[in-house]
Description:
Layout: H1 5-19, H2 23-30, E1 43-54, H3 58-82, H4 94-100, E2 101-111, E3 115-125, H5 126-133, E4 145-153, E5 156-158, H6 165-172, E6 182-183, H7 191-194, H8 197-200, H9 205-215, E7 219-229, E8 236-244, E9 249-258, H10 264-284, E10 316-325, H11 328-339, E11 344-351, E12 356-365, H12 368-377, E13 380-385, E14 388-393
Parallel strand pairs: 4-6, 4-7, 10-14
Antiparallel strand pairs: 1-3, 2-3, 4-5, 7-8, 8-9, 10-12, 11-12, 13-14
Helix pairs in contact: 6-10
Amino acid sequence: MQFSRSRIAVAAALLALAAMGGVVVAQMESGDRGILPIDSSGTLEVSGIEVDVGGADADSARYAGWRIAQREGFKKLWAQVNKRPVSQAPSLSDSTLDGLVSSIVVEKEQIGPNRYIATLGVLFDRSLAGQLLGVSGDVRRSAPMLVIPVTFSGGAATGVELKNGWQRAWAQFRTSQSPINYVRVSGLGVDPLLVNAAQARRPSRSSWRNLLDLYGAANVLIAEVKVDRLYPGGPAKAHFTGRFGPDGQMLGSFDLTAKDSADLPRMMAEGVRQMDQLFAQAFDAGIVRGDSSLIILPPVPVKEEEEEKPTTELAVTQVQLLVASPDAATLNAASSSLRSLPGVEGVTEASLALGGTSRLVVSYRGDAATLRSALSAAGWSVDYEGGLMRISRGGAAATP
């Protein structure tokens, strides 16, 4: 274990203050809270792998033990994922496993001069090992669930107000394979004031609504454990209970034992694993789900009434045009060109004179001056003749 210089300085200061009365030391210990949850979204974990191996020296024995843990860990995880015996798991080479393993977790170890005895866990990279393990990329997850760990010990109930083994086990639990989308608190900041043992028994749904909105959850899961010890440091028996919702709906319970105080972390970790299975079964049964009455919906934005702007529509004007029509094709082309002008709503033939000049009536939304400008922009030459517009192509008016 390594200690930083700042920690050594703080320890020296606390010892000096303890010699002056010890009041400050007691205050510092009472504020010892907060265990940050680990992020396990990108890993797959298998734990409880026991190794006992010898070697030429301590480092060689330890390296060999980790190699064995990688091999057995992959097979054990493959069997768990595929629900098949470990004997059917594929055997991978050590070089392949080195690329899949993210890290080795030392749960317990004893290092001798040429022997290594340990209980290890192995973390596999989810993106690399998922395909070999048959793990699909998408896992059906529940709505966000705020989990509150509560410990009953010595007649007192504790949540995250102080560091304790139950909250530590939940903080260290890897949730990547769980169907429950847990929202775990660290015990830092305002967590001890809001997420505590008293809140777990509070029936007011209004306070729950505000709390769940603060932590971004849709409902609450309460994980309780009651620890009874025969004597300090001796065997312990724990009764675990899972509850759901503000009303504390009972989901189930189970018992575990620890042979001594050193075995308590193992018991708590196993309790979290079984509690997760309990919550997962309730989720599959449709019990654990979000509650719309506990979700604060954002206010509906009030749409400002837009000021109605007065719109003035131009009246439709009937304008008569004279156009040269040496043949039917020329007349049809002229009519099509006129219909394509903006504002023109219709073109009718008032008089037809193939080989001469035909008269067309154009229904135009606007006045004659605007139509003349539109015709000029479209490449027509426009002249007035006898109160009528004469149009022609080529930049000059056609001779009648």
